[in-house]
Design brief:
By secondary structure, the protein is α+β, with helices and mostly antiparallel strands. The protein contains 2 helices and 3 strands.
Length: 90
């Protein structure tokens, strides 16, 4: 069984940002956080790449960042869940 999870974080321009949040000018307006499927090579994986490519054509000039979850992509999905959580909280 493939272990796969994904999240999209979208902050529209002008959205309020909590104090201490990563609000630097170089932060993307949209960020895709994707975990590859089981036993795929590092990166967003086949499904993640297809999703990112499809989303790219719908961005309307907004900037997009991509974060590939760092985990072994086997049975240790807790490592990926923790990495994803840390990245989103950052």
């Amino acid at each position: 069984t493939a272990a796969l999870f994904a999240a999209i974080v979208v902050l529209p321009a002008g959205a309020p940002v909590a104090p201490g949040a990563a609000a630097a000018a170089n932060c993307p307006q949209v960020e895709v956080v994707f975990a590859r499927g089981r036993f795929e090579s590092a990166g967003p994986g086949a499904l993640g790449n297809a999703f990112i490519n499809s989303l790219s054509s719908k961005m309307g000039g907004r900037s997009m960042g991509i974060y590939a979850v760092k985990y072994p992509a086997d049975t240790e999905v807790d490592i990926g869940a923790n990495d994803m959580s840390r990245h989103i909280q950052y």
